[in-house]
Each structure stands twice: as C-alpha cells, then as structure tokens.
Amino acid sequence: MQDTFFINDNGDGKKYLLRTHTTPGQIRVLEMHKPPVRFVLPGKCFRNEDVTARSLEMFHQIDGIYVDKNVNFVELKSTINYFAREFFGDELKIRWRPSYFPFTEPSAEVDVECYLCKGKGCKVCKYSGWLEILGCGMVHPNILKNMGIDTEEYSGFAFGMGLERTLMVKYGIPDIRIFYENDIRFLNQFK
Ligand SMILES: [Zn+2]
Q: The domain 6-188 is classified under which CATH number: 3.30.450.20, 3.30.930.10, 3.40.50.920, 3.90.550.10?
C-alpha cells in the first residue's frame, strides 16, 4: 500500500527494508507476550513520498494494540473518541470512515475537523474540511491465529497514528517540514 525505500546491502550480507509504518511491531509484541496485552509502539517510518506541507519521507508513528477477552469495536471507538476529546478538546468535530488495512477487519479511519478553516475547506485540508489523524480496526483473526492465540476466546483492536500530523492539528502548525528545520524559535515553544 505504500511506496518504500530499499536498503539492499548493509555490509552483513542481509537485505533490509526500512519500515513504512510501525504496525510490524505488533507481531513482535504478540510473539513475546500472551494476552491480555496492551502496548503502544512509537517509531520512525520511511516512505518514498513527495515532500509537501503535509508529508515527508520520514515521520513518526505511534501504534497501539490491545488483545483480551471480549474486546469489541465499541471499545475501540470509545477509546479513540476519548483520546481525541482529551487531546484536541471539545471544539473540533471527529469523523469515522470505513477503510481497509490488511491487518484489521473491520477497519476505519478517523478524521478531525480542520483546525485552520474549521471545516469550511482550505489548502491544508485539500478543501475537504477534514484531516486524517489515524487508522484503526479490529485485529485480523489470521494475525491472532498465526500467533497461536485462540480467536474464539480472544479478540483485539489496534490503531496507528501519525505523530507530526496529530501535533499539527493540536498546535495549528501549517507545514510538517517546520519540525525538522531546527528553527530555535519554533522549538522553544515546546520547552
Ligand atoms: Zn482546512
């Protein structure tokens, strides 16, 4: 689903691929821990993207996974909505859209009302009035089965969120490139 950079030779004869999202970390967590599990996985991601006000070739993601008995979509929705209200405040509206990811079923994407135009439509939100903040869904049963987890008993939800984009919405930052220009006037405000 994403265009990637490859590193074929790292001097040790192995082939490496820079990850395009932090979701592969979910498998590592499930390999090491039996449910119930609750984890957040922050990390750098790399994609062969055009550099624009909204996207860079390198950015940070935070993945979350929760597997336990009777985990359902209602819990996922209320958890994300609670996060969004606490993080962005009550003023900005939140929208859920059905989506597709290979590792969740069903899947959804969550948008927040554009902080610049307040939903009217502007350049930053591509005149849609909304900004995507995360993808999420119920962990695909095949992933749990491959980890030896009984899907009759256990289920889980997972989400992945772009850190820079989330901060852009919260602080009204108009251009993602500002994060990595090392401008002391920009950085000082987060002391
Ligand atoms: Zn806008």
A: 3.30.930.10
The alpha carbon of 113 and the centre of ligand 1 are apart by a number of angstroms equal to: 8
CB 114 within 8 A of CB 125: yes
Residue boundaries of the structural domains of the chain: 6-188
Q: How far apart are the CA of 126 and the centre of ligand 1, in A?
A: 7
pTM of the model: 0.85
Q: For residue 17, what pLDDT is reported?
A: 83
Residue 128 has what pLDDT? 94
Alpha helical stretches, state H, the chain: 24-32, 73-88, 141-146, 163-171, 184-188
154 alpha carbon – ligand 1 mean position (Å):
40
